[in-house]
Amino acid sequence: MTYCFPRRCGNHLAPPLYASGVLRVIQYRHHFPGNVLHVNTDRYHSISSTSGLNDQVVTFVARRLDSSILENTYILSPKINIEAPLDKIRPATSEERLATYSKLQQLLVKYSLAEAPSSSHGMFWEHLFRIKSSNNEYQPFVQCQLCHDILAYSIANGTSTISNHVKNCLNKLSKPKNNKILDDFLSKSTEVNVTVNDKRSITVACAKFCSFDLRSFNIVKGSGFTSFCQSLLNLGYQYGSAKLGVPSANSLLPDPTNISRTVAQLAEEYREKLKDILKKDLQEVKLVGVSTDYWKNSGTGENYLTINIHYSKNEQLVTYMLRTSLFDQSKTGENTRKKIFSVLSNYDIDPNNYHIVYITDNGSNLICGLQGEVHLRCICHCLNLALHNGVDLCPSLELLIKSCQGLCTHFKRCEMNQLLSTSLKLNVETRWNSIHDMMESISISYQKCEDLLLDRNETYYLDDIDRKLILALVKFLSLFKTASEQLSADTTPTLHLVVPWFTKLKNSCEQKGDDPLLLIQFKIAVSKMLDEKIYLTSLHYIATFLYPVTKKLSTLNNKLRNEIYADTRKIIKTLGIQQENRSTMSTKTIDVVNNSRKKKKNDFFMGDDVMQEFAGEIDEDCDDNLDEIDRYINTKLSFSKDDTLLGWWNKHSLIFPQLSLLAKSIFAIPASSATSERIFSSAGRILEKRRQSLKPGVVDDILMIRNFREI
What we know:
alpha+beta, 6 domains
């Protein structure tokens, strides 16, 4: 006997169906724990029970194996129409539910859960399981440990969807469930129940929208699109009781010219709002970061300059894009400096009245233009430059990279990438870690590539590619990729990571007995380039000192440690932190030591936590000392993984008031100019090939509005 059930509405996959035995499903997609059987139909789930089983027991499983599953088991009458509403389905008895649950457990033996990928570094993986079949093969799905939902996942598609899912689950769990407010006891209007047909009509409309206007399917998940739809719903709710008929969409949607004018008006309002925000916030800030960079529009060849501001507030890092404008002058250091100072003055920020740290890449015009200012070079650009220059010093490695590029190009040109589980990725000169990504994709799909090329008599594409050498290079370069990802973060402090990562990367360049000759040559070249391209300042060392785990600086020599302690005392005076009236900003500049310092070599670590490795052997003996810095050094302090850096210092602000204020100021300064790169990524999406006629001012207006998309 066959039953049909309407598909449940919602954002997740359709609910799986079970009966009190092994069902024969008309159509199915996947078979894995917590979401075993999926019926791939348009409007209905169709299932058929095998002969000899109870035809009436059917279970709607809520994706997890606990008591909540049993509440969704129902009994169907064979006489019910195949499109009968669910209110005619009676709940199953406890015996029937237990029988279904027992057979469900037997059905799940086929699949098991596995840990997250070993190469993953996101914190969200702590709340996810990968799914592995009985033959030890990973399935393209993960299971959330918080809500037990099953989510699609593949290495090729990235992790943004599953990371956002975990973030939403954590936000739901953090909300109090038992506390009620007065509004909870007041009568509220009943929420409208969206029917299956209504949901379907919206889905069709969204499909047409994406197809007609060539938009991404994910656009329906955007906060802007959701806000727009909610405004339409609110308008319909407001006038719905009048029963005046359904309004035409054309009467509601504005003309594109009107939208363009509205964007300009909104952007100007947001600029005034941002000016007020900065005027208030910067009164409490001792140190401000300003990151800037150039970008060229590949479509028109026009140059843009972006300027961003960074500071901390209420245990959070704050970043705003101040301006992304067309730079039609010569890109000299003097013109760059004038433009940066002009944008800052538009927000009533006088560089002479604030302690500002500028973060840029290694561009000569930026370095020249900011002479005399406190200037940090983007650590991620420096790492990328060290690797590329290291490649230039190894001709044999250049030939290997060209062979890898030829292989990737051939697979793309011959449309063979679709035959690989992991497509080959061609490196891009301007993209960080792209050499690693290209070689990693080749190492993963090497055997399959060899088989495909053998069938086509084209194995000569692999003649100059040594698989073992590729694996060794990937292992070495993966450490640089991890460092770049951690150091380019926007929402968490990064400046304290620079010195430990530099030390760890230098140690990774030491030769090992089983290293291939080419890798040894590359390590020597990269080690040399790291010393030449990375500039460590006193701000980097002070930030590392202010990280509780590494406050002892045990891996450094005594002379360097004493210099760091002295620099810390000096910057406290420079910022006026010792003064009673902390709202008055000092006009002095910060004395930063820009000379690269030599560090004591050590070979005792290769673990996962770079800060713990850098901390070394910690002596926790306490002693009575003279000032706050000495007390901080010698006091036994705990710092757990659950603590945030700014939150930890806020909790210890009564014990270390001066250092707490200094830490909150320094940790707001980013270690890289990755914020500028992200701004330009958005600008590139705005100025697509079909939108090159947009005026530069419109680009700046759109990016300004995006500043406030989370508010």
